[in-house]
Amino acid sequence: MRPWDYHPELTGERLVTVAQLLQRGRGDAVDRFDPAVGDNNWTRGVCAYSYACHQIRLVAGTPGFEWLSVISDGIRFQFGIGGVPLRFFRGD
Q1: What is the predicted pLDDT for the residue at 92?
Q2: Among 14, 37, 57, 58, which residue has the least CB neighbours within 10 Å?
Q3: DSSP notation for 25-76
């Protein structure tokens, strides 16, 4: 089953766009990573998560991104594509 089979708002184009936003945020975290000031794998992961959320926040609801929204802007960041709520998940 493909995402758009689950819900028509989850188009391939939208999912690729969100993936690019997440990739940009994670890339920013890697670029800023500096062990000389105390960064470690934990801080890199926390920054990657935070920067990825920030990328979504920046464009959500703006022209061309009306389909993207922020539902919950806390530690458990939740965003939406169309009417579909989404969260980050790590694990099996």
Answers
A1: 72
A2: 37
A3: HHHHHHHH--GGGT--HHHHHHHHHHHHHHHHHHHTTSTT-TTEEEEE-STT
User: In this structure, what are the phi and psi dihedrals at residue 48, rounded to the nearest 5 degrees?
Assistant: -60, -45
Q: Which residues are CB-contacts of 68 (< 8 A; sequence separation ≥ 6)?
A: 14, 17, 18, 56, 59, 60, 61, 79, 80, 81
- Quick one: average pLDDT of 69-83? 94
Q: Note the pTM of the prediction, 2 decimals.
A: 0.88
- ∠ at Cα 51 (48, 3), nearest 5°? 80
* CB 10, CB 86: distance < 8 Å: no
